Amino acid sequence: MSQAAAPIGAGVAPQQVKKRGAPDTLVRVTKYTITRTVSLFVTVVIGVYLTILIANMGGHVDNIRRSQIREAIGAASMTPEIRRMPVEERNAWIAALIQVEEERLGLDQPFIIRSFRFLGNALTLNLGRSEYVISDTGSRFVRNIVLERLPATLVLMATSNLLLFFVSVFFALYLSRNYGSVLDKMIIALSPTSAAPAWFYGLFLILIFAGLLGVLPFGGMVKAPPPDDKLSYALSLLRHMILPVSAWIMSGIFSSIYGWRTFFLIFSSEDYVEMAKAKGLSSREIERRYILRPTLPNIITSFMLMMIRLWAGAIILETVFNWPGLGKLFYQAIGQYDTPVIVGNAVIYAYLLAITVFLLDFLYALVDPRVKVGS
Amino acid sequence: MLQNKKLAILALVALVAVVVLAACTTPEAQIVEKVVTQVVEKEVVVTQIVEVEGETQIVEKEVVVTQVVEVEATPPPVERQGAWLDTVVVVEEPSADAAVTRLDVGELDFYFFQVSNAVVAQKIANSPALGQYRSFGSYSELSFNPTGPIFAGTGKLNPFAVPEAREAMHWLMDREYIAQEIYGGMAAARWTPFNNASGDYAALADVVRPLEAKYAYNKDKATEAITSVMEDLGATLVAGKWQYDGAPVEIILLIRTEDERRGIGDYVGNQLEDIGFTVVRDYKTAAEASPIWMSGDPNDGQYHVYTGGWVTTAVPRDLGSNFAYFYTDMGRPDPMWQNYVNDPEFYDLAERLDNNDFATVEERRELMARALELAMADNVRMFLVDRASVSPRRAEVVGAADLYGGMAGSWLWPMTLRREGQVGGSVRIAMPSILTEPWNPIAGSNWIYDMALIRATGEMAYVPDPYTGLYYPRRLERNEVVIQEGLPVGKTLDWVELSFAPEITVPEDAWVDWNAAEQRFLTVGEVYTETQTALRKNTVHYPADLFDTVKWHDGSPLSIGDFVMGMILTFDRAKEESPIFDASAVASLRSFMSAFKGVRIVSEDPLVIETYSDLYYLDAEWNISNWWPYYNQGQGSWHALTLGIMADAAGEAVFSSAKEKALEVDRISYIAGATVGILKAKLDEAVATGYLPYEATLGQYITPEEAAARYANLTEWFRKRGHLWIGTGPWYLERAFPVEGTVILQRNADYPDSAYRWLGFSEPMLSDIDIDGPDRVTIGSEAAYDLYLTFKGEPYLMDDILNVKYLLFDATGELAYVGEATAVEDGLWQATLTADVTGKLAAGSNRLEVVAVSKRVAVPSFDSITFVTSQ
Q: Which of B287, B332, B666 comes nearest A337 by C-beta?
């Protein structure tokens, strides 16, 4: 066993390191923080601007919008009052309406100028107003639209993902202890089932539990009409979560357990674990101190990335279960080329990702003494 | 550690228990009233085999005996005002397939969506638990690019620049194949610019049917005609492929991908390839295709044919404008239309029909007949099928669905939706989307599904017949229509009084415009120095008890202030001096003012209003300017609208989406969201100050006492329900749950109309025709055919039939004669082929086709019989 790979407290003498003064550390951390912040910010800027370009198809969406406006307003000109106008007057009437709508959508300005304005607003988290998508309560402010859908997504995705994550980790630990058991083999055999997405399982679950057995609802967040008291509301919410959460877990559980189990198994076969076993430590003690501890950075990374993924929701799953979350909203926004909503979602995700990556660097240093910020 | 573990297990068990408990929560029990079956003694006539005393002969004899039988109890007649149901729960269900499954298991009662997918429609038809209402509305066509024959942009050949090539496409397309195979039977073949379910199609059926026969599928004829065109253009057929300038003649098909038009595009491509063209299939979604066909320059040659689709949302009463709209540059200002070049005669006819430039119905008919012929030959737009769709429901749940809009587009569903044999109770309906945009009557949501609910909470002064499109009075007592002599206006229903006058003069004291700065109406005398005339005047008479019987949902009686507010808002938002000026309202006012000549309140109570306008419709029933307080997007009371006006003027929230962008504020919603709070603050302010908008004018009609009472009523309404949406309709909005996607409507117990009032419209009276007559006719002899017209097995009333025509097609398939059948009695008509008519027929097989046009439904009925003529 190499000394460099030995964890602190594993009964191995720590590597001799040269001690440095506190000012030195402060300079190193400050320098790292600034460099990392700038690089992450540049990444965010590039990512958001690319999103703006892609969401607008490099400006082609303007042509689509102009055509759609013409179509819609031209169709409105079929009313008898408009039809009886002389052709020139009618066309002028249509042109005036088209102009109002184009101005409303900002199409009176070149895309390239607007793209930088989008970028500036996005980076300052001025998410602006949507073009078509409207919040359920009638607002066009992207902030309101997103905030309105966020709780629904968080409650569904957080429940699903947290359950999936912790069940997977703990079950994987159990399997790593019982390597080669029937249960272990069964999990390995079932892990390819995770190739199917959650919505695929959702369809079957709806068919069985809502369609055939009629014991659970087809979709939605609560029953209609929604209960007035909070307890009944919560119970109804739980009842409506059973199928989508189950679908999410069914889709991910086997491959997730398999992945973590394999990961733990690798660490379980390290020499220092064998040494601990030889010393007669309990399996619980070995698991906690010699397996979980060195794998903590990976677990934390996985957990943090999972947490920010909650933001995106699950587009198709939410659509299948008619769940009023961010995923469904995003789907709607893409279908309508609603750039502010798409960019709004993307910029928040980008910032969350950047902050997470930034924090993870420090968290690694906290949980793993081998890691030093900026070294 | 152990303790922690136990706690964790305990928490887990508790969580599972909660989830299981939640799963076991059963839906609320629903009380279902049933028509019970009774066991009663009843005298019945039975045939018995009896042995006659004293004789050995056994005979059958009818005797009356008393038996115990089961009969369905007739429910006692019930007194019911307003809607049949007590509650409607509306939920969102975007998937038609899922909705049908939910209907099947009884979780839903009605799906307010027009399902046109053949597989889903079959699923509905196969389920005994489900019913459906069939409707029309959308239709598919081929739009030809008429520029060329050489595209300026590509230098390539465009055969469809030649009208004869476009006309030949009629023969190349098998419309029946498209309807039956591509649409799976959920469509009907269509040849003309008239929807199959329309008054004009029915009225001109004797013109349309021969055209349909002339342009029936005939691939050989198509090949012959197109070959002629191609050769004239200088193309040559080399190894079965058309070549021009040494290169294959390419036809670019712009094919829409979202629906069956993909199949249509492929079919068109196959047919064109079969006759020698090289086809490029350009598959595009609506958004991708729009910049090419709608706003792109046709001269660029990016497409030859586009698979177009259109939708009609209400039963059309006048399709005369379709010629100008679909075939000429008068249709739209878009590049494709501006490239249409027509035969001068056709253009003139289209223009005259678009401008109603004819004196009589008969003249219009002649113009339409000729225009139809020329449209088929011009064929820049080739109609293929009328798509059918169904609104699925539970079998026991019924209501009046619109022939075009289905249930969601029906104006009568709120008054007719019910469970058969049941009064009261609730139903659960689903819609693909719900609460899509903010609700405000001025410029709020215009989504069809939002409007379905908005219509339930409000009402217009008249009701469109869901099957003919004609208007019936709801709150009106009568309507006097005066039309300038020489204009082709007719009437069908008795409630309208139609007369003609040589000249209609607009009185000087009629209001014709609005001074927003001074907040007063301008009269004709102030605005014009010369005497004003109008083409139409109509006078609506409201009943004497209108203001006593009709109440807003908050309990406030309807008043003349509601009408005057509507008149003011017709103008005010489009006036720059107004505090609520909205640039997007200017165009609407401009179009309104192009015909409007004046309005005058003749009597305040009973309310009588006369309106002068140059806009007139061919149906007298449609000439109703009634000023009822129903706005573009719903009904509005003056006091609820006042709150919106205050918010809009303050720039805190605005009525329209165009203005919300400019001011960076939200659009007003009376039902949910932050703007409800703004409106409530305005209500408190109005209560405190007694604020009355447009006081200079409204102050003459609204007393301070009425204003105070109304604000108090609305405050109480808000306290109970948390929103400010009120109407006078048969339903009121109990609550809206925007995030959860649920709306609760409750029956308005104060609604003045009987629940029975509109039940006669629950089903379209489509007649069945049965022809009875000789199958062999001697040439030169008279032959008479009995035509039995029935509805559900009962004779169709003579008074409900507009006309019954018969078309005689000879052995060559040519139209030989058109006649009008004569009425014998209810349900029986007779078509007589005189000796003169049969004398002109050759020996062979002939076809007699009968077309019955009903006054009760815009869909004509057809039947035919074949007979043989011999010497």
A: B287
